[in-house]
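Lecture notes, unit on protein representations.

Consider one protein chain, 92 amino acids long.
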Amino acid sequence: MSASSPTAYTPPTPTNSAGAAQGYQGFLLLDQGDDKRLAILLYDSAAAARAAQGVAGPIAHEYIYALLASPTQGSLGTVVVGDGVFAAPTQP
């Protein structure tokens, strides 16, 4: 099987695994300078983000973490402004 073949094997990556997860809305990679990057993955709910972490986390650990200069930091949050529009308040 050649690399140009439409049936060529594509190994799993955190990005394509997270993007295939239910609720996926998008991905941003920000260059913060000084060889620092910030990846932001957007999901329609915290539950969807947690489910994606369960799939993409082990893949990231296997393929990416050894290449990083420092440990990763994860965080979940709720969008409060999107495209200049305030999001509806969430219920506790």
